[in-house]
Amino acid sequence: MKKSKRKIIYGLLPLLFAGGIGAYLYMQSSKAEEAKPEATVDQYIEHLQKQEFDQLYTLMTPASLDESGMDREQFIEKYSAIYSGMEVSAIKAEVKPKVSEATADSSAAENKGSGEQNTAKPEQNPDAYEVDYNLQLTTFLGEVNETQTLKLVRQETEDGSKVWRINWQPSMILSDMIKGSKVRVRTLLPERGDIVDRDGLPLATKGTVNEWGIVPEKLGDNPEAMIVQVAKHYKVSEDVINNALSQKWVKPEYFVPIGSTEESDIPEQFSGVKLQSKEIRYYPLGESAAHLIGYVRKVTQEDLEKDTEGYYRAEDWIGRAGLEQSLEKQLRGERGGVIEITDEAGKVLSELIRKDAVNGQKIQLTISAETQSELYKALSSGGDAGAAVLMNPTDGNLLALASAPAYNPNKMVTGLTQAEWDAYSADEQLPFINRFTNRYAPGSTFKAITAAAGLMEKVTTADKTHDISGLQWRKDESWGGYYVKRVKSLTPVNMVDALVYSDNIYFAQEALEMGSKRFIEGIQKFGFGDNLGLDELYLKPSQYANEANLDLASEVLLADTSYGQGEMLMSPIHLASSFTPFINEGKMVKPVLIEGKETSEPEVIITPDAANTVKDALGQVVSRSGGTAHALNSLPGDLAAKTGTAELKAKKGEQGLENGFVVVFDTQTPSFLISAVIEGVNGRGGSHYVVDKLKPFLKQLESTP
Predict the structure, then answer these.
(1) Taking a C-beta distance cutoff of 8 angstroms, is the pair 135, 93 a contact?
(2) Residue 340 — left, alpha, or beta (φ > 0 → left; ψ -120 to 50 → alpha)?
(3) Which residue windows are transmembrane per the record (predicted)?
(4) Residue of 403, 444, 502, 516 marked active site
(5) Is 271 designated active site?
(6) Distance separating alpha carbons of residues 689 and 693, to the nearest angstrom
(7) 495-529 per-position pLDDT tens digit
(8) pLDDT tens readout for residues 213-228
(9) Which superfamily does 208-278 belong to?
(10) Of 44, 190, 472, 628, which has the most beta carbons under 10 Å away?
């Protein structure tokens, strides 16, 4: 029996041993599956980088959240507000490697042996864990780099399991934050650069204007009646005032701006109306330089949608026309900003990052403010529409660029009344069109270039004559009913005569003799297809023909092109530049508008002999009795000129619109060259009207030292 019991006991021993081993392994496995602090740290890093602030909240200890005074929604809102305010576009967080125990023990031993104080940390609480991590925030001002510490504790949950949670503190957002502190983001605005003339006089600068507005609580006992009076006086609708007063931000005691005024006093009978000074962009020359300088306006929703670089804000100003628009990036500068941490009262505790604003560039033009004003005055007198370009033909400096009619750029900044806007809109002469960059058929002014091309192609000479009878001519019957016409019957006619009396038939015959190929080669070098480096003016290249007719295969089109009609289009700027070879021994000088801008060297396009031959003939346009610009002969200096009248009509046989042109330069001391066009000179003397109109200006220009 005893033997039998021993057998049973011996049989059970392996089972008991195996069960003990299994239980031990199970306990070890369960212990290994306990939550580790590193897992919570990894979750924190992942959610932070993804800006999943709702998930961050679940990782914090309830006690630390109670201490912060924030519930879940407030926690999320705080993080979101701070990160969006700083425009955080990317977050990078990396845990710093911990020093190993072996390394720490080794360092401690070395310190002890050398007699140094032992700096090793005492044994840590097994329910606490700390780890440092590097945080990098990419903000709208650049990168913010910090080292932060996470403090974790092991806590028991309701089901008895243990988890690691983080003790939240304000410094986890930004290391310098404490309870109650805030993050403040301030934009540092740049000063817009001035545009100045050749002498440094301002053409676009900083100015002030009186802005009128209303303080609602001071409108008196009958606000509606007062608003009616105020609206009538300042020429705005009652709706404009009421809409301004109904904005969400308005409070009874606030000043609500409505519009600008040139008045410096408020009528005594008005209650609730107040004036204050406001800084604005100001244009000293007003209408005189409106098309050249342009103006600025507040950005629109369309501007914001087109802003691919994300620079503009709703309160910004942007160049809307002229140089203000084309040089916007140079003039606006670059905004800066500062991100700072403040206490509850707004006192700055620390500056997180700063980027100083970069002011806009000052742009100096070759323009003379005084000359610009005088030229515009001469051009716009009598209500004419047209353009005038004044340049120095030897260095290309543009001295004045005038277009009429014009608009008031200062009104465009401060705001037009409805009546003012209606007046501009109803003006048939279109005051917003920039005519010195507009392209026109240049008419007979182009004959000087045809003459130069003929001289260079060895077809034309100064004394070569054509026997022409009558006032009209056609090559043969193949032209059908089309005739080239002239205004003066003269025979025989040489090149000089043809320029002096502006003979269309002579130059049509010369062009036909050259043939289209040689004619094109001769005129194309005068700058066709080139915007002359004036990107800032959005200058469109001139053309001698439409795309489909660039070969001038039609003899009729070739003939018309020779005297500046057909499909030819030139801007007044290009027309001025195309005459510079006649002053510079054959070198064409391109126009220059911005001081210091890199420009190309003048190019020799015709021989000095050809240039001087044309120049001498143009001198006789002024000096000879009967010359089309003989009216200028009484002015001081030796002037040369070429006039032209181009008729524009929709179809043959009808009366068309006539534009008058003149190009004038001084041959003795070549310091100026002017090209001008006046629209609608029908019945007013054609190009002679333009000559007479500019004569007083030229007299003043010639007498100026």
Answers:
(1) yes
(2) beta
(3) 7-27
(4) 444
(5) no
(6) 6
(7) 999 999 999 999 999 999 999 999 999 999 999 99
(8) 999 999 999 999 999 9
(9) Penicillin-binding protein 2a; domain 3 (3.30.1390.30)
(10) 628
